[in-house]
């Protein structure tokens, strides 16, 4: 342990905000990560003698709260392109400056293209204000460099504004993601928006059911939620699995809830009534009451009478 720092620093605001809400396992993992200056779940799990899934879940919690830096290690599940677009907190790379359009060149490009005029004018209407120079250059970049059609760019702007994603970095990441994934038609963009809206709605339902209010979801937690709804379970069954997990281990654990739901899926348990009937923990058989016996000699010494099986006392 000599290669690790002799002390760790944790600010008071973090302690005040999370000490009551975070489980003991989460606190142990945080201290271990700060001590080791590493968020790789494998070595931490071995050091603390904890399941690696629990350690990864705890690290995800602290990353989601911003207490630990978000570090993706080789032992962590890889995120899909959609996960990276939806969950990355890192700012998008800045738009290329070379060749950088001057204000006059930008105006000429827009003047010569009805499609760009449509994009800029419609976007101003969606934002409800004039566009900044950075936003105008960015929209031109999406059209000319990323090759996104004008109507798709407008759909992206409307999607971001409608969901409160007003930072231009988010729009930039979304458009780059669409270009990389081939979302270049109105139909594909509409399909993506419907899928993402449904996903956000499902995540909101789960966060409310689990009482998650002081942080966002981690990438792994989002994957679990997506899997549960893909298995065909609604929020009633997910909430029931959460309650079973808390009753069993005393805390919220996405991996444990996942085990319960996967087990129900394998048993074709689809409703709370079926879960109550077919998946109750086995109860230990009740022990028979011990048969009473009496020592006649002791009763005689005390001047007592033996109980009569018929309910009275037998005289001697």
Give a nutshell description of this structure.
It contains 16 helices and no strands. With 316 residues, the chain is an all-alpha fold.
Low-confidence residue ranges? 71-93
| End-to-end Cα distance | 80 Å
Number of helices: 16
Give the ordered list of helices and strands. HHHHHHHHHHHHHHHH
Structural class designation: mainly alpha
From the spread of the alpha carbons, the general shape counts as elongated
Number of strands: 0
Taking the sheet with the most strands, its summary is:
none
Residue fraction in strands: under 5%
Rounded mean pLDDT score: 79
How helix-rich are the residues, as a percent range?
55-70%
Description of the molecule:
- This protein is mainly α.
- Helix content is 60%, strand content 0%.
- It has helices at residues 12-18, 24-36, 41-48, 52-65, 81-87, 103-111, 114-127, 133-144, 150-162, 168-181, 186-210, 219-230, 235-249, 254-266, 272-278, 296-302.
- The longest helix has 25 residues, at 186-210.
- The termini are far apart.
- The model is unreliable at 71-93 (pLDDT under 50).
Q: Secondary structure elements and their pairing?
A:
Blueprint: H1 12-18, H2 24-36, H3 41-48, H4 52-65, H5 81-87, H6 103-111, H7 114-127, H8 133-144, H9 150-162, H10 168-181, H11 186-210, H12 219-230, H13 235-249, H14 254-266, H15 272-278, H16 296-302
Helix pairs in contact: 2-3, 2-4, 3-4, 5-10, 6-8, 7-9, 9-10, 9-11, 11-12, 11-13, 13-14
């Amino acid at each position: 342990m000599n290669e690790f720092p002799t002390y760790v620093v944790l600010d008071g605001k973090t302690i005040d905000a999370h000490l009551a809400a975070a489980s003991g396992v989460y606190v142990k993992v945080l201290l271990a990560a700060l001590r080791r200056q590493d968020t790789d779940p494998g070595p931490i799990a071995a050091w603390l003698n904890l399941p690696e899934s629990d350690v990864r879940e705890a690290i995800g919690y602290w990353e989601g709260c911003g207490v630990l830096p978000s570090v993706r290690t080789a032992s962590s599940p890889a995120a899909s392109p959609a996960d990276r677009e939806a969950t990355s907190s890192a700012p998008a790379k800045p738009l290329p400056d070379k060749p950088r359009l001057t204000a006059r060149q930008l105006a000429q490009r827009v003047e010569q293209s009805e499609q760009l005029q449509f994009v800029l004018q419609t976007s101003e209407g969606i934002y409800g204000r004039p566009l900044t120079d950075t936003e105008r250059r960015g929209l031109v970049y999406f059209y000319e460099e990323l090759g996104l059609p004008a109507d798709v760019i407008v759909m992206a702007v409307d999607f971001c504004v409608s969901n409160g994603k007003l930072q231009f970095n988010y729009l930039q990441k979304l458009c780059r993601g669409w270009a990389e994934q081939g979302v270049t038609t109105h139909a594909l963009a509409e399909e993506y928006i419907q899928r993402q809206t449904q996903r956000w709605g499902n995540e909101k339902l789960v966060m409310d059911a689990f009482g998650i209010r002081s942080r966002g979801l981690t990438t792994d937690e989002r994957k679990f939620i997506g899997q549960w709804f893909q298995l065909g379970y609604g929020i009633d069954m997910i909430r029931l699995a959460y309650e079973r997990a808390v009753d069993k281990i005393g805390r919220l654990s996405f991996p444990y809830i996942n085990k319960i739901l996967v087990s129900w899926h394998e048993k074709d348990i689809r409703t709370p009534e079926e879960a109550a009937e077919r998946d109750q923990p086995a109860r230990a058989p009740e022990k028979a009451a011990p048969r009473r016996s009496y020592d006649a000699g002791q009763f005689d010494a005390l001047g007592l009478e033996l109980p009569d099986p018929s309910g009275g006392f037998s005289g001697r």
